[in-house]
Request: fold
Amino acid sequence: MPEQPEPPLEAVQARLSALASQHGIASEADRVLNEVLTSAHNAARESVRRLDSIAEQIDHATVNQADLALDTPMGAREFRKFLMDKQREIASVVAEARELGQAKAAVLQNLRAQYAADSG
Reply:
């Protein structure tokens, strides 16, 4: 079997340069992916913490109904206001989580394109 000729040095250097560039792109994409996932996880934990706090406040209020004078018109109005405020807080947590999720999804779509370009 005849030996294959060795590629010219310039071709080897060009290939090494291309591989180094691909590695750099992949490394940057990996760094961004790690950052996105870490921040998304932290945001999810914070959202759960906020929702747990709201639930605890509502539970505390329902356990202590006698102290709130719910059997009076004023007490009932105040409790209704309290519950409406908690509902707004919950809606705010959900809206913020949705916005963050959409922003992270856009970053992940961009990363998907980077990984596809890197493998191709």
